[in-house]
Protein 1
Amino acid sequence: QVQLVESGGGLVQPGESLRLSCAASGIIFGAYSMGWGRQAPGKQRELVATITSGGLTNYTDSVKGRFTISRDNAKNTVYLQMNSLKPEDTAVYYCNAKHIVSLRRDYWGQGTQVTVSS
């Protein structure tokens, strides 16, 4: 079965940093683009960062310059380094795996809570 397990969330103050990790299993990791989405209470889920199997990245404007997505194909793991965190970054962060060819193969993890508050 496919599993995406996020870790690294927590409570931090504005301006601080967190690194999220997502360990993937049950997929051929190199055949998937990976990403991170987030959902705050009362809001739609927002895709904040993606990375292709070849390492090309994309970010939503609100996190550009502050967040960095990366992947370690040997470990089947994707990371999200979050710097200069703001209260508006508070959300549940979800790991996403999207097959580069097969449209039905689109998976999400259970999420990890990130809270930015003073």
Protein 2
Amino acid sequence: QIQLVESGGGLVQAGGSLGLSCAASGRTFSSVAMGWFRQAPGKEREFVAAITWIGGSTKYADSVKGRFTISRDSAKNTVYLQMNTLKPEDTAIYYCAAARQYRHTYYYLQEMYDYWGQGTQVTVSS
């Protein structure tokens, strides 16, 4: 099993920045890719970004492209999400996820991911 713990959420003004971390533990060798998803109140959970452990190939949702950056530190089994130029629309609970298999076609689908963290709240005020 893989355990995921997110941290770094908080309150920030529009236009500001915030960095999130996702620490993985357990059988981390079984994970090939990591993703970030978010869910706003009354909304469906949506894809934000993904990265592969080997090669560091990245994918981003159009809504965050150019503003958010996903990265990983393999030695620390940690994935990061740097969020810049934050907007009120970015307000949501952000979840970290791990996938045992990576499919280029399915990187944005939550069904591709097998393990999930508890989430961390990000609130952007206007």
Protein 3
Amino acid sequence: QVQLVESGGGLVQPGGSLRLSCAASGIFFRIHTMAWYRQAPGKQRELVASISRDDSTNYADSVKGRFTISRDNAKHTVYLQMNSLKSEDTAVYYCNAGVQNSWSSRSMNYWGQGTQVTVSS
């Protein structure tokens, strides 16, 4: 079984910064693409940023230039550095990962339980 655990959320003022972490644990062969999603109250969950195993990245237009996604494959961890935060960034942020359980298995999608980010003065 694979578990993803997020940390680093909290309350921050507009213009401030937070760094989110998501660590994978359990038995698996390889973690492929990792990503951060977010969901604000009353809204659909949306992709914020993703990163492949070779560190190729993409971002939602709303966070380009402000957020940076990175990963440490040795630690099975993905990070999201969030700068210049706006009230619109307030949401529960969820970690997502494509996980291959063995050399011959298909990749499966896993989700963390989420961490709250609140941007308010």
